[in-house]
Structures are given as C-alpha cells and as structure tokens.
Amino acid sequence: MEYKHILPGDIEKTSMSIIEGELAEMGIKIDESIRPVMYRVIHTSADFDYVKNLRITDGAVEAVVEKLRTGGLTFITDTNMALSGINKSALSKTGNSACCYMAEPDIAVAAKERGTTRAAVSMERGLAEYPEGIFVSGNAPTALITISEMIRQGHKPSMVIGVPVGFVNVVESKEELLQVCEEFGIPAIIALGRKGGSNVAASICNALLYMASDGVDPDKRY
Amino acid sequence: MEYKHILPGDIEKTSMSIIEGELAEMGIKIDESIRPVMYRVIHTSADFDYVKNLRITDGAVEAVVEKLRTGGLTFITDTNMALSGINKSALSKTGNSACCYMAEPDIAVAAKERGTTRAAVSMERGLAEYPEGIFVSGNAPTALITISEMIRQGHKPSMVIGVPVGFVNVVESKEELLQVCEEFGIPAIIALGRKGGSNVAASICNALLYMASDGVDPDKRY
Fold it and tell me: What is the interface pTM, i.e. ipTM, of the complex?
C-alpha cells in the first residue's frame, strides 16, 4: 500500500488544503470570517453536507472569539464525550474552561423527579452557574429546547452551539433554536437537519479556541 | 414548535424504528447478525452512507460478542474521546474494560523519539499488554497501519474496529487493514472511505457490548 509521507504535524494542514481544493472544485467559497469553523467541521466529519447545513448567525464567530481572547468563559457540554474532545491546551492557553454535568448524581436525581432529561437539567445548571457561558449540545435535543426556553425568558449566553444528531425532535429543536437566537440576538452555530454529534460539537469549540489562541501545538489537539 | 412527546427511554427505540423504516423504503435489509451494529452507527451519525461503507468480516460480530459475554476483554482506543463514548455500565455489566494510552507522557516521548505518532505507539503498547484486545481507531490512520503490520507479524487481536475519519492516508489505511484482516482471519469492522470518527468508533463498541449484555439501562448510555 502506498501512503503519503507526511509528518504528523503537517497532516492537518494537508487535510485543510484538500478540503479547500474540493470546495473550490464545487465552486464554493466559504466566507473568511467563518472558514476555520467550517473547515474544522468538515475535517472532523469528512462530510461536505455541513456546507449547506451549518448556520452561523451574523458576527457570531467574531464576537465569541473576541470574548475567548479575554478569557474567563466556560463551555458547558451535554456529553462527556464532547467535553473530552475539547482541546485542553487551547482552553488553558486562552484562560477558558469547560465542564459537563451529565454524570453528576444530583443531575440524574433531578431529571428523574421532574420527568425530564439529564441534558435539560444540565443546561439549566449551566445557565445558573455560568450565565455568559457557551452552551454546547452534540447529543440531546432536550438541551436545545431548554436553552431556547431560557433565552425567551431573558437569559443571554455568549453563544449556543447546537449540533445534536438524530431522528427524534432533533431537526425541530435546531430550527427553533436558530429562530430564537436570531430573534434575541444570541450568537449561534447550528447544524440544521439530522446530522451533528459530539465530535462536531467539539470541533466547533476547538476551531473557536484556535482562532482565539492563534495556534496551538497541533500534536496536542487530540 | 411541535415536538414528539416521547419518554427519554423510548427515544432510542423510536429512532431505530425510523432507521429501519427508511432503510426499507430504500429497499435495504440489513442481515440480522450485523443489524445492531449497523443501526447504531446510523443512529450515531444520521448518515446512511455507512450502509455502503461499513464492512464487517464474516462472523466477526458473532465471534466477538461471544468473547465479550465471557468477559475479560479490553478495548484499546486511539482517542480519549472514543474511550469516553464507550458505555461504562455495559463494560462493567459484561466484565470487560477499556483504556486509551494517548495522553500518557511516555507515549508522547516514545513517539517523538521514533518520529512516529502517539497513536502508533499506543497500539503497540496495547498489543503488548492485551494481545487479545479489541483495537479501536476512530482517528489515526497510523494506528491502523501499525495494527496491519503487527497482524502480518503474527499478532491476533480479538477484533479491529477501524473507522478513522479524514483526508490523508485514511482511505488507504482502511483498505489495507481490511485486506490484512481477511488474509489472517482477524475479525474486523471497518468503515471504508473517508468517513468515521470517535463517535462512530464508540457506537460500534457499544453495539457489541449491548449485544453481549442483552440490554443496558438506556438512560446510562450517554
């Protein structure tokens, strides 16, 4: 078998060039302001459908990257898998943090008592503890439904990353979230349709962190 | 917005029915022996491309599920993200375990000294410590290249799950692995083409564990 001989640190750069080349062949040019996010999502999924599906509200990337540069923000995820995929070096370098409440015992208790999901309770906890956090869902539409309701009630997170994957209430919850974020001026990155996932969620967080940190040792990204 | 009112525990069942229904509409029937794996991969990705891409060597699922039922097997992953996505309740219920060496400092040192990747060194370490392990790659083609070489040298892991995603050496490393596994009779589940990822890798591990454990509390799956 013939492999390309590329140093580990150059694989990502080569991948991004391939993505750029194939987009150009399709006659697609991604606006510079959102390019690192779009390319990283395609890099993570090998799925060019995201060019059509991924919606980024006006100025969202610039606004949140500026805040991440200042530091002190927290990403609140709806799976430990997404949390695990967020680059810890980039978080530390930029002075930001990330957490996930899903595995905490009191979250399970509260969800059971109220007949709702742990993801919904986790997002409520996150909005209470980090009102200006970045809320990240790669899994649970109920996380998005909760965030949409809380934005309508006046909450103002710094950003919502809404990319759950699936077949039940996923499409609807993402459409509603996009509408709510546009109405209330909340920066949002949302993958319309069924596709998404914890890997896509983490890749968006990382793209934003890399933009804010202006380059992190690529060997530390996984 | 109108949502389907479905109890959290029933969402997965409903999703699987939707997947089955859409496959039937496409005139596709998945063989019963591999159905839980295929459905779970589609459930995790919302991507029906896997019907064409996912290759499972003859009898692979039956063989590994039988071993997982006995217990004592270890999944060795090439990302902490895939490790994080493997259901810990199902591991514990079946008496199996999972590990990832990627973040261990001596792995980074060895990779740097030898000019290779941490994933390659991790797989070598895994094959040394768990010769009958299940080797899981959702990220690094170099992990697969290493495993292919070691199988040629006589190693006999219980299974290789080869589903890295990406644009450089990914397609080639998966094709070679499939060829090697078929030649040496090693059970394998491989997503040909560019697509895959840590989420897909974890979903395959979980499908096998659920088959071995005959049902795990669905609330504990994420």
Answer: 0.92
